[in-house]
Design a protein that fits this description.
The protein is mostly helical and 85 residues long. It is 49% helix and 0% strand. The chain is globular. 0% of the residues are buried.
């Protein structure tokens, strides 16, 4: 059974991902599901251990950067409101 979730992405990245998914005849939902399945599979305990495929790099803007430091609610709230301006 499928479960619905809401995700937020940089608009440019979202557009590129949609184009990539359409070009490869897959829905954006299934593309994200595939990536999440790979990330959460056994054998990877952090982002640094997960190999980013070439096709993911094509969808992304620039080099992949991972924020693994814990962020506070206050900083997340500040970041959220800054993105809405």
């Amino acid at each position: 059974m499928d479960a619905k979730i809401t995700l937020s992405f940089n608009e440019a990245v979202a557009l590129k991902a949609k184009k990539y998914a359409e070009k490869n005849n897959v829905s954006l939902s299934r593309l994200v599901e595939f990536l999440l399945d790979k990330v959460t599979s056994p054998g990877y305990s952090s982002f640094e251990e997960f190999p980013v495929s070439d096709w993911v790099s094509q969808v992304a803007e620039g080099a992949a950067t991972y924020q693994t430091k814990p962020r506070t609610r206050k900083s997340l709230k500040k970041e959220y409101y800054a993105s809405k301006k």
